[in-house]
Each structure stands twice: as structure tokens, then as C-alpha cells.
Request: fold
Amino acid sequence: MRNTTGGRRSWRRRRRRDRGPARRTPGTAADGGQTAAGAMQLAIGILTASLDSPELEAWAVWALIPEDPMALGDFIAGLHAISGLLLYELHEATGQPPAATLQKLAILAEIRPGTPSAG
Reply:
């Protein structure tokens, strides 16, 4: 958000500091939207970077998450699809129902140090 004259705040499109506007990412469709596979690849890239180091995760979030609202929506849909696949794989590997896994994740997120509390 940027403060404009009169004290009102308005949303302004974020620009990359050293490269100008973000370029198209791999897996984009002809109309500027991402393909489902491209959105899922971006989601996997972010998740993989988070396993390596906090620095790589920070870079990946900055470099890979699209700024365009339509592409961002596609990316979020890709994250949702990957989450569903991971829940299915966990269920297959452990026999634990997805609802129980999500409940454990919610509890861990609440008690994890550095995580803001919802309550």
C-alpha cells in the first residue's frame, strides 16, 4: 500500500527492485493464465525450497510467486491441488484419515514458536 495525497491509501502493483515487472513464468497459458501443471510446479518449487533453508524459501517466495492476480489465483489453486495429493499420500502411507492429519497440523501450527496465534 502506498500513501497518496489526502492521507488515503491505495493499492499499488508491486515491482521487482532490480528487474522491473515480473516476467512470465514457465507453464503459462496463451491468455496469460497458468496451466494447471505450471501452477502445481510453482507450488512444488516453493514447498521444496522451504525444505532446504529459510533463505532459499524467502528467495523462492519473492521470485516464484506471481504478482498478476489471475496467475496468483492459479498458483493458490495449484497449492490446493498439491495439498490434496499430499493428504492422500499420507493416508495411503499411514492409514490415518485426512481429517486427523489436518487436525494435527492445525494443532502444530498453533503451538509452533514464531507462529502468530489466531486467538
Residues 7-16, 18-25 have pLDDT under 50 and may be disordered. The chain has one domain: 27-111. The radius of gyration is 18 Å. Residues 27-111 form one domain.
